[in-house]
Amino acid sequence: MLEDLGYTAEVHEDDEHCCLLRSRSEGIAWQADLVGQPPFHSGLRLKLPLLVSCNPLTWANDWNRTRFSQALAYTDADTGHFLRDEDGLAWVNVESLILFESGVTAAHVAASLNRWVEDVLHVHSFPEVTYFEELPQ
Question: Are the C-beta atoms of 44 and 122 separated by less than 8 Å?
Fold first, then answer.
């Protein structure tokens, strides 16, 4: 489906043998996961993992006020502290969901993916954001 719409799609399987699709838009890597049980998937969850050098909650809230997709700051379940990489940058995930449950047309999927890619490309305008050219494993 992604390839039919002109996007690259590398197919991977996770530990539960669910389909993971990895793609890139202008060098920014993102992932699409099929939601629900095969063969009747209920949707497609789009994910863009990022690292931010500022307060991740503030960044996510600012993103959520102006964008179609939703940004979430990662926190440690035990401590409630923001999750950070070895350089102290905080993890944020930008997500969107395309639901299939009530039926879906190629035009709907194409429009939703185009809107998603607009958001993916918008991260170029944030100097405090580090994105991935290849997704971490």
Answer: no
Give the pLDDT confidence score for residue 18 in this predicted structure. Answer: 62
Residue 19 lies in a domain: yes
pLDDT tens digit sequence for 113-125 = 999 999 999 998 9
d(CA 84, CA 52): 9
User: pTM of this prediction?
Assistant: 0.85
DSSP letter at 59?
Answer: H
CA distance 27 to 101: 32
**Residue (of 100, 134, 121, 116) closest to 29 by Cα position:** 134
Total count of domains within the chain:
1
- Whether the bond into 39 is cis, omega within 30 of 0: yes
